[in-house]
Amino acid sequence: MLIFANMIIDKHIARQAAKILLQINAIKLSPKDPFTWASGWNSPIYCDNRIILSFPPIRNYVREEMAKFIEREYGKPDAIAGVATGAIGIGMLVAEYLGLPFIYVRPEAKGHGRQNQIEGFIEGGQNVVVIEDLISTGKSSLNAVKALKEANINVKGMIAIFTYGFEVAKTNFESENIKLHTLSNYENLLIEAAETNYINEDQLETLSAWNSNPSEWNAS
């Protein structure tokens, strides 16, 4: 039975998180002058949640909401795992708030030294919740999950700051049977941006069209 859940943890938090991400330019919307992602996709949105770390009140808000949700949903796991590199900072803050050990997972094992992919101390059979900053297709996030499982570590679930809500991500998480929750998502971002006049109706239409078919979208 699949247990996939691409769910926001709370509607109010989803709107508040979207609001602050826009305010500090962690998320930028530019329908007329799109960004180019590393994948080659053209995109009217760019998200860099590492900026959160530069704003103490906001990073504290994010870590506390994540930590409180983890306690409600999972109790206290044995450790918090961050996905390198974007989620190392916020993952460590969540672990500190909960008084738990912290580890992080590299995209691949180092080619030198101990050749670790998982950094930090953890034992097989222990439980972790994985922290991620951003979900696009989900492949890099699930690569970290795979490494943890191969080390005989139990992944209880994943919580991320933001997701674009792509269908491909849903499919990828379903195939790996991993539960995902997020502070906010693309739907709530657009609602917040439209209601605060950050974008107009034409821009809203463009942004909605991109999200339904991001790999083929272009600004023209």
Summarize the entry for a quick read.
The chain is an alpha/beta fold and 220 residues long. The chain has helices at 11-23, 56-74, 88-98, 139-150, 167-176, 186-195, 201-212; strands at 6-8, 27-29, 35-36, 42-43, 45-47, 79-83, 102-105, 118-119, 127-135, 154-163, 180-185.
SS strand fraction: 15-25%
Q: If you compute it from the alpha carbons, what radius of gyration comes out, rounded to the nearest whole angstrom?
A: 17 Å
SSE string, helices as H and strands as E: EHEEEEHEHEEEHEHEHH
Number of helices, where a helix is a run of at least 4 consecutive DSSP H or I residues: 7
Query: What's the architecture in CATH terms?
Result: 3-Layer(aba) Sandwich
- Into which percent range does the helicity of residues fall? 25-40%
Average pLDDT confidence is 92
What is the number of independent domains? 1
| CATH class category | Alpha Beta
Largest sheet: spatial strand order = 1-11-10-9-6-7-8
Number of strand segments = 11
CATH names the topology as Rossmann fold
Structural class: alpha/beta
Distance between the termini: 42 Å
Could you please describe the fold and organization of this structure?
- It is a single chain.
- This protein is an alpha/beta fold and 220 residues long.
- The longest helix has 19 residues, at 56-74.
- The strands form three sheets. The protein has a seven-stranded mixed sheet with strand order 1-11-10-9-6-7-8. A two-stranded antiparallel ribbon has the order 2-5. The protein has a two-stranded antiparallel ribbon with strand order 3-4.
- It has seven helices and eleven strands.
- It has one domain (6-202): Rossmann fold, CATH 3.40.50.2020.
